[in-house]
Amino acid sequence: MQRNTKYTINDYVHAFKNGEERGFNFFFREYYAALTYYSVSFTKDRSVAEEIAGETLLKLWDRHSKFDNASAIKSFLYTTTHNSSLNWLRQQKKNNRQLKEMKYLFDESESSKFQKIIETETYREIFLAIEKLPPQCRKIFQMLFFEGKNHQQIAEELDLSVSTIHNQKARALMLIRKSMAFIFLLTLVLI
């Protein structure tokens, strides 16, 4: 996902606070996938996690005028997703489901929650790095790693040589590694 370079994060926060759709769209694009992943780490159910992430973003929008900075928005999103995920699990416990997971989650330490947030943010950065790849490079990368196709299948489907597929894969991995260098260093420092 390429960000529009003429807007800064503060511009999006300001737009969001003023109820402008572009502000909401920015935060939706930035956090929906990450919040879904974060919720899945608790619920173990992707469809429930997607619903929780969507509801969390709607709750954020309902309170848009109360947020002055991106950090407050991010904190609200993760806290609300965390609480909503736990509430969903409590409801499941009442229905005699997922009893073992509940005990684990309620006994979870703060450092474990922090680790999940770091992991989620790392995945978010990876997905952002993939979105920034050049179009053909991104398409080949997604076909290889998300669709599970092999080099030959992709070459035939895109009418390219197998060596071009290998080169584009290598290019994608190099660009992602370059984009992710900072996040890996940060992770090492925080662990």
Quick structural summary:
The protein has 9 helices and no strands. Helix content is 80%, strand content 0%.
Structure overview:
The protein has about 190 residues and is mostly helical. It folds into two domains: about 1-110, Rna Polymerase Sigma Factor, Chain: A, CATH 1.10.1740; about 135-190, Arc Repressor Mutant, subunit A, CATH 1.10.10. The protein is built from nine helices and no strands. About 20% of the residues are buried. The mean pLDDT is about 85.
Which descriptors would you attach to this protein?
2 domains, Rna Polymerase Sigma Factor, Chain: A, mainly alpha, 191 residues, Arc Repressor Mutant, subunit A, 9 helices, globular
* Beta-strand content bin: under 5%
In the predicted model, the low-confidence regions spanning at least 5 consecutive residues are: none
**Which bin fits the share of residues in helices?**
over 70%
CATH topology of the largest domain: Rna Polymerase Sigma Factor, Chain: A
CATH class of the largest domain, anyone? Answer: Mainly Alpha
CATH architecture of the largest domain: Orthogonal Bundle
Number of strands: 0
**How many domains make up the 3D coordinates?**
2
On the 0-100 scale, what is the average pLDDT? 84
Structural class designation: mainly alpha
